[in-house]
Structures are given as structure tokens and as C-alpha cells.
Design goal:
The chain has 477 residues and is of the alpha/beta class. It folds into two domains: 72-382, Trimethylamine methyltransferase-like (TIM Barrel), CATH 3.20.20; 390-420, no CATH class. It contains 19 helices and 19 strands. It has helices at residues 18-35, 42-51, 65-74, 121-133, 151-165, 177-191, 194-199, 217-229, 249-270, 297-313, 331-347, 366-382, 390-393, 395-401, 411-415, 417-420, 432-437, 443-457, 465-475, and strands at residues 38-39, 54-55, 61-62, 78-82, 88-93, 98-101, 107-109, 116-118, 170-172, 203-205, 214-215, 233-235, 276-278, 284-285, 292-293, 318-320, 351-355, 357-358, 363-364. The strands form eight sheets. It has a four-stranded mixed β-sheet. Helix 10 runs parallel beside helix 11. The protein is globular, with a radius of gyration of 23 Å. The two termini are 29 Å apart.
Length: 477
């Protein structure tokens, strides 16, 4: 089970002043009230209008600032997500940082052959089992999209195999609401009923409107379905700077914030107090390549700013980590993946996904997942709160050792050996000669071998046969 108190104690960073946060928020309120947005869902539009919004002659729905304030009052500042067994796994909110892999990549780097190939349903199982084996990974996403399956088949089947392949909580993507309902039925079977699932949520549903200013039928369908059943739901627009959003960082994140707040108001009008995760994916359209970059400095800065806004609003937030624009696991991949992972911790981002994403999110690598798990462990150690006490200041030990002495034989050294030094599993801490004698392996090869070893040896506790049969029925398999 994941530690449900992943609080980061040190190294906080800030990109926005208090005045800038207030101005961004006030501007977002102006977008909601003065410009308005399109809701392409009759029931969702009715929820907004009955709640106090207005609709203009062009069909745009306008949200008064008071409704945003009301939604901020009713939305939980934190909520717990539970694992398959019903134990607390993630306490989302505050500055607690959790990490998981990504979903639905079309291509995988095969661990055995190294080839880049299309994803299969078996890859979903393999990704879940590997994440289950890595204590640094707190939640699990699908890791791959099975080639050749339509959404109606793929999403319920992903959920079904993931339940069996990991005990950790799940974060799911979906097509229409018809693909979410089988997941909810299966989760009810796991938990022992709808009321038990509402009390102890097992999965989070990812949900995303369309920038700029559009809330489609499928998106609103899923948002209302989750609100009604107490399923935690994200609402994370992806405003692309220079494409579907202003090219300036301030304009981009303010548009995304307004779109996310629109979803928050609808969600809380429908079910006040239902668990909600705010966020955005502020990608950048590279004007030289026409590629939407996941790791440009503009993306990283915009992401940091939108996380700060979520912290300022005191709403659990969606985050990013452990991904790269590189096509292979190389120096660029390591730098980009660790930069964002460390930054997410320093910002206190809550639900950080996409560990193992490569090639702008088009490919995935389980070796990269293993490598980033090492980064997560290292960064958690780096950013842990520092204890300053009589015991750690060690003045009595210093007095006993005296000038010119050493601390190797001191009980204090033995007592704190394990809690004072972090041990790398993949990163090299050996001399050249010892490294060479050990096979001269680089970190990429070590990560690949560790992934294969974990998949060969890790066992996930089996589920009862009668539950497996009920899951098949609930999935419609």
C-alpha cells in the first residue's frame, strides 16, 4: 500500500506573487462572467442555468463570480482514495505529492527486443504489475492503448485487467460515459456495493474539456456521472499556447483556469461536496516544428503556475511527472523526467501522472518507469523535512570524538546509518573499476533489467474466483 501522507517538507518554490495570483483569478472570473462558454450538453447546461448562470443570444453560458465562490466553499480541500483492499492509499490535497504512470500510449518500447511497437492489452497488465512492484509508484494508469480495439471495448477491458494486476488505486481515462459505467460497476463489486465505493473511492476518472471555451457532450456526461456517484473526477483542460490558447503564459493559464472553474461550478451545483481534482495540461505549440511539447521550458513554467493557482485555491490538483520529449531513454530523458518530478514535489502537486511517457506522449517505456521510480525515491529524500534536534546536532558526540578524531566507531553513526544515507538501486555510486567489473552497465540497461526482473518475480495477491466472475459480468466481457 502507498503511504497516504506523502508530504514534502522542504525545497518549496514559487513562480507567482500574491498579486499575480489574484489578478489571474480575477481575470478568469471575468472570462466566466463576461465572455462565457459553450456547453454542448443539454442536462449540463440546465444544471448551470438552474444554479444561477445565464445564457446569451449566442448560446454562451455566463457564470457569476458568486457561484465560483460557492463552489470553492463546497468542494473538499482534500479527500482520500483507497486501494483495492479498502486501505487508505492517497490523501489528495495540501502539498502531498503522489506519482503514477501514464495512460493510453499508442506505442511501447518492448523490454525484450527494444523495438517500438503498437500497444496490446497484455501491455496494460504488464504496466500495472510493474507499478504494483514499485513502492515509489502510488497509483496506476493503463500504460497503453490496445491497438485495434474501439473505445467501448478497450476502456472497460483496461480497467478489468488492472484490477487483477495491482492492489494500488487506479486513475482511468474513458471514451463516453458508456465506458465509465462498466468501470463503476466493477469497482462496486470490488468494494462491496455503491455505498461502500462512495465511502472509499477506488479510482479517479480523468476528464477534459476542449479549449478554448467548449464543454463537449462526452466530457459533461462523465463529469455528471461521476458527481452523482461520488467518483473523484478531474477537470483538466489542455490549452496549447499558440494553438488553442494565447501564446503568453499568463493568458494560457488564465484561460485554462477559467475552463476548469466552469467545470468545478457545474460539478458542485450537481453534487455539492463531491470530490474534484482541478488542473490543466498547458502544452506549447512549437512554432518551428508544429509539435506540441510536453517538456519545453514554457510548458514547465506554465505548469508550475497553474499548480500554484490550485494551491492558492486549496483544491486537490492534477499534476505531471517523469515524462520526456525524447524518443529513447537517454540523457535528455533523464534530465526532463527528473526536472518535472522534483518540481512537482516542490510545488506540492497532488496527483502526478505520466511517469514513463516519451516522444511527446506517443510512446511509453517501462524501463523509464523504473528509472523515474528511482528519481522519485531520491527526490523524496532530498526534499524531506530536516530534523534539527539535540540528537541530530550531535554536540555530545562531537565532544566525545574531539579534535582530529573520526565518527566511524560511534554508536551515533551506527544508529543513524540507515536514516542518514539514501541507497541508490540504479544510479551509479561505484568506482570505475568496480563498475567495470560489474558489467559496465549504464543506467538505462540497469532499469531495463530491473523491470524484467520485477515482472518475472513480483506476485500480486490473487482475487477470489467468485469476484473475478462478477467482474467479468460487470465489465460485459
Amino acid at each position: 500500500m502507498s503511504d497516504s501522507s506523502r508530504q514534502i517538507g522542504a525545497g518549496r518554490v514559487s513562480f507567482l506573487t500574491e498579486e499575480q495570483k489574484r489578478r489571474i483569478y480575477d481575470t478568469a472570473l471575468g472570462i466566466l462572467s463576461d465572455i462565457g462558454m459553450v456547453v454542448l450538453h443539454d442536462e449540463g447546461e440546465a444544471v448551470m442555468l438552474e444554479g444561477g448562470c445565464t445564457k446569451d443570444a449566442d448560446g454562451l453560458v455566463h457564470v457569476p463570480a458568486g457561484l465560483v465562490a460557492q463552489a470553492r466553499e463546497s468542494v473538499p480541500a482534500s479527500f482520500v482514495v483507497y486501494d483495492r483492499d479498502g486501505a487508505p492509499a492517497m490523501d489528495l490535497g495540501g502539498r502531498r505529492a503522489y506519482f503514477g504512470n501514464g495512460s493510453d500510449v499508442m506505442y511501447l518500447h518492448d523490454l525484450e527486443t527494444g523495438e517500438r511497437r503498437l500497444g496490446r492489452l497484455d501491455d496494460v497488465t504488464e504496466a500495472a504489475r510493474l507499478c504494483d512492484a514499485l513502492p515509489e509508484i502510488d497509483f496506476v494508469m493503463s500504460g497503453a492503448y490496445p491497438d485495434g480495439m474501439d473505445a467501448g471495448e478497450a476502456y472497460p477491458k483496461q480497467f478489468r485487467v488492472m484490477i487483477e494486476a495491482t492492489t494500488k488505486p487506479l486513475v482511468m481515462t474513458a471514451g463516453g460515459v458508456e465506458t465509465v459505467e462498466p468501470m463503476w460497476r466493477m469497482a462496486c463489486e470490488v468494494r462491496g456495493g455503491a455505498d461502500a465505493l462512495r465511502a472509499k473511492p477506488y479510482f479517479v476518472m480523468y476528464n477534459q474539456p476542449v479549449s478554448p471555451l467548449k464543454h463537449p457532450v462526452e466530457t459533461v456526461d462523465k463529469l455528471l456521472f461521476c458527481a452523482d456517484r461520488g467518483i473523484p473526477s478531474t477537470y483538466c483542460p489542455s490549452p496549447v499556447a499558440g494553438g488553442t490558447a494565447p501564446i503568453t503564459t499568463a493568458g494560457q493559464i488564465t484561460l485554462g483556469l477559467a475552463e476548469a472553474l466552469f467545470g468545478l461550478v457545474m460539478h458542485q451545483l450537481r453534487a455539492p461536496g463531491a470530490p474534484f481534482v482541478i488542473g490543466q495540461g498547458p502544452n506549447t505549440l512549437d512554432m518551428a516544428t508544429s509539435q506540441s511539447s510536453y517538456n519545453s521550458p514554457e510548458f514547465v513554467r506554465a505548469y508550475a503556475c497553474e499548480v500554484e493557482m490550485a494551491k492558492w485555491l486549496d483544491i486537490p490538483n492534477w499534476g505531471f511527472s517523469g515524462h520526456t520529449d525524447a524518443q529513447v531513454v537517454d540523457a535528455q530523458a533523464g534530465m526532463e523526467a527528473d526536472e518535472l518530478t522534483k518540481l512537482s514535489m516542490q510545488l506540492g502537486a497532488n496527483l502526478n501522472h505520466d511517469v514513463g511517457y516519451m516522444d511527446f506522449g506517443l510512446s511509453g517505456s517501462l524501463a523509464e518507469v523504473v528509472l523515474v521510480a528511482e528519481f522519485i525515491a531520491r527526490d523524496r529524500r532530498l526534499l524531506a523535512a530536516l530534523e534539527v534536534s539535540d540528537e541530530t546536532l550531535a554536540v555530545d558526540v562531537l565532544r566525545a570524538v574531539g579534535p582530529g578524531g573520526d565518527y566511524l566507531g560511534q554508536r551515533h553513526t551506527r544508529r543513524h546509518l540507515r536514516d542518514s544515507q539514501w541507497r541508490a538501486m540504479l544510479l551509479n555510486r561505484m568506482s570505475y573499476d568496480r563498475w567495470s567489473e560489474g558489467g559496465a552497465l549504464d543506467v538505462t540497461e540497469k532499469a531495463r533489467r530491473k523491470a524484467l526482473d520485477l515482472l518475472a518475480t513480483h506476485e500480486v495477491p490473487a482475487l477470489p474466483a467468485d469476484l473475478l466472475a462478477r467482474l467479468d459480468i460487470a465489465a460485459g466481457i
